Amino acid sequence: MANSLYTPAIRLDALPILLQPRMATAGHTPLTGILEVEPARTITFSREGLIAKRYWQLESAPHPDDYDTTVARVRELMHDIVARQIVADVPCAAMLSGGIDSTAVAALAIRKMSAAGSTTKLKTFCVSFDSDHSSFIATDLRPEVDSPYALEVATWLGTDHNDINVGAEQIERVLLDCCRSRDLPGFGQFDASMFLMCQHIAKHGKIALSGEAADEIFGGYPLFHDKELLAHNNFPWLRNGPRLTDYLVPELKELIRPTELEQDTYAQLLAEVPRLPGENRKDARIREALYLNMQGPLAVILDRKDRISMANGLEVRVPFCDHRLVEYMWNVPWSMKCQTGVKGILKDAIKPYVPDVVRHRRKSAYPGMHNRAFEKNFYNQALAAVEHQQSPFYGMFDAAKIRALVSRMQQDKTWVNASHLLIPLVEASRWLRTYQVNFS
Question: How many helices (H) and strands (E) does the chain have?
């Protein structure tokens, strides 16, 4: 978009993708005339034009190993992957939330460093908020604060641990930086806290390990275990809940038909799923859900991680995305994946290297800040996005319905969860104004 020959524009029928980024298919952006190189592909320009070639894809096949062999293979792979990824000519750090995924990566990194004769402690980093002690409210999505677990794990592992405690003013200050680092609408405060964490880590080193992608590979998200959600003929994470497009004015909604786009995208991705002949219906549906999550949420999470970290001069490596591990776990039957509980194979594979408290800890999403002043400002921004005449979205949304939605959310003590619906509206408005994108 920095090219003076390009005028940033977005088609109205791409509005649903702008408001629900996890629904975008690989290679496509909401911007008119701009595509991205799809994952696992190369592109070649020549006089004949552009040629895209795929060099890797998942393949479904019967899993040949029993449970113990599978656990041993995962352990072997994780040892080798982490050992390869900490090789660098600068010190390597690790993000540590105190959950099973980041703890596994940090623990294996320490073992490799020790085996190589290093006496340097691994630096670990966790993000927390100055309002955690006074305002945190437990929810199903975020039942606990990360920082106490991260500290307990760091003490057990013997790392040089750093708790990066941030507040609302710091979050507000970097929201525009996050927008510019991603070049597309982001996730508001969740991007901002990651930006601040990467900024801090970069002062101590230029490479960090992350536990991202383990939930997609090992089936850790609650939706994989929810029969009702899996039975829903749509993206499992969307459920039957409200969409931002529900609040568009009727004539615009009729013009762009967001429900049809959602169903078409869902059908397109389902058609891509590598099938296993003879697989029972339950396992086949789980395979679909795993694939959908890799193509949607995981793709967005990894892009977010790459752009935000590199904007701060930090390279974040993701061991769980090693193609050997992804390929192996893709064909492990769901009954085996869950034989000893959620992400049981991973927990059993790294059992010798982590404290029991981590193996038994309940899944908690990336942390969110509970701050009433920040919340009030956020809702004001959401209302401004639909009510102010200077807003790019002016006239597109039913302002009265958005105001009623905000009123209901303000009465919800778990507003951090509820705000997920409005974050794309606020951030898309910021992005449209920052990059001067017009609707075409």
Answer: 21, 9
Please, what is the average pLDDT of the chain? 94
Instruction: Write down the pLDDT at residue 42.
Output: 96
CB atoms within 10 A of CB 166: 22
In a 3-state reduction of DSSP, which class is residue 260? helix
55 pLDDT above the threshold of 60: yes
| Cβ atoms within 10 Å, residue 186 | 28
Residue 416 has pLDDT above 60, yes or no: no
Contacts of 400 (CB under 8 A, 6+ apart): none
Strand order in the sheet with 160-166: 160-166, 123-129, 92-95, 207-209, 315-317
pLDDT of 381 strictly over 90: yes
- Answer for the pair 36, 27: CB distance below 8 angstroms, yes or no: yes
Chain mean position to CA 213: 8
Greatest alpha-carbon pair distance for the chain in Å reads 68
The string of DSSP codes covering 16-72 is HHHH-GGGPPTTB-SBTT-B-PPTTEEEEEETTEEEEEE------------HHHHHH
Q: What is the pLDDT of residues 190-214, one digit of tens each?
A: 999 999 999 999 999 999 999 999 9
Rg of the chain, C-alpha, whole Å: 22
Token pair, residue 79, equals: 């040892």
- Is the alpha carbon torsion for 129, 133, 137, 138 positive or negative? positive
Give the tens place of pLDDT for each residue, 298-308. Answer: 999 999 999 99
* 162 strand-pairing partners: 125
Please give the Cα distance from 428 to 14 (Å, whole number): 12
User: How many whole angstroms from its chain centre is CA 412?
Assistant: 24
Q: Which domains does the chain have, with CATH numbers?
A: 67-220+281-359 (3.40.50.620)
Whether 196 contacts 174, CB under 8 Å: yes
Please state, in angstroms and rounded to a whole number, the distance separating the CA atoms of residues 318 and 214.
Answer: 9
Alpha carbons 13 and 428: distance in angstroms, whole number: 15
User: Is residue 360 classed as helix, strand or coil in its secondary structure?
Assistant: coil
CA count, 13 A, side-chain hemisphere, 321: 18
- For 165-178, what is each residue's pLDDT tens digit? 999 999 999 999 99
- Encode 75-114: b = buried (16+ Cβ within 10 Å), e = exposed: bebbbbbbbebbeeeebbbbbbbbbbbbbbbbbbbbbbbe
